[in-house]
Amino acid sequence: MKNAMMCMALALTAATGLSAGQVFAAEMDKAQTIIRNGEQASSKGSEQFFTGNVRIDPLYPANNEMRSSGGSVTFEPGARSNWHIHPVGQVLIITSGVGRTQEWGKPVQEVRPGDVVICPVGVKHWHGAAPNSSMSHISICEEKEPGKVVEWMEKVTDEQYNGIQQ
Prior knowledge:
Blueprint (H helix, E strand, L loop, with lengths): L1 H15 L3 H9 L14 E2 L5 E2 L2 E7 L7 E8 L4 E2 L2 E2 L4 E8 L1 E5 L5 E3 L4 E4 L5 E5 L5 E8 L8 E2 L5 H4 L5
Antiparallel strand pairs: 1-3, 2-5, 3-4, 4-12, 6-13, 7-10, 7-12, 8-9, 8-11
């Protein structure tokens, strides 16, 4: 462990121009944060941004050094997000159930536990549960500017949700 820390300090020294002592001291001043299960309150997904019953459980907030944030989102059967884009993209890790996702102008895709959906910067999309199954995913987003991780758009119509081309 000590050797790994020293290797990391030497690599950072070369990359930053700081002395090994400065890098090691800076690394030693940092500490992990543990957010205990149940410390953060769940919230209901707003009808302004979601159709159906959606529960949002925050996992971790963005902070000054790490701009990403994470949350667990559970969609009841048939529930879904509005169309939206992310200014720095989004990663979804499907953890349970059966879900759906769609990019604007493309077919609806089914997602299952273990699937990872990478939503590129600025790609208009939606995601939610299948008609007869709930679906949960972990969402990881990064802030482009403080507090800005998503741009919400119009509701997904029943026709879009059911994959009927308009």
